[in-house]
Amino acid sequence: MSEYKVKFYKNSRNGKESVFEYVKKLDFKNKGKVLKYIEFLRINDGYLEEPYSKHIKGKIRELRIDFSRTRHRIFYFTFINKNIILLHAFFKKTKKIPINEIIKAENNYKDVLNNQFLYE
Length: 120
Hints:
Blueprint: E1 5-8, H1 18-25, H2 28-43, E2 53-57, E3 60-67, E4 70-79, E5 83-91, H3 99-114
Parallel strand pairs: 1-5
Antiparallel strand pairs: 2-3, 3-4, 4-5
């Protein structure tokens, strides 16, 4: 039985991996917490109940990482061949998710679908 794999969204135009860059820039404690949640998502086959994860739109879900006063959010979806694609990450500052953050995740989702070979 194969396990789920986590993959970072890769922009098909410039090759940038924005979620990877977001995580890389975090301080040691925050990075550890975020990576722990990503691993938790992987070992649970891409699905976590609230409050750890929440449905956003279509196939897109939100990984919710709350740590003292910091609130990291990573949009993701489960893809073919047991791949979890991390689409977009941001630091949540407001009560509601800003619509532009959802739009970024949706655009990245469409980019993944149009460039599936990048995730094989």
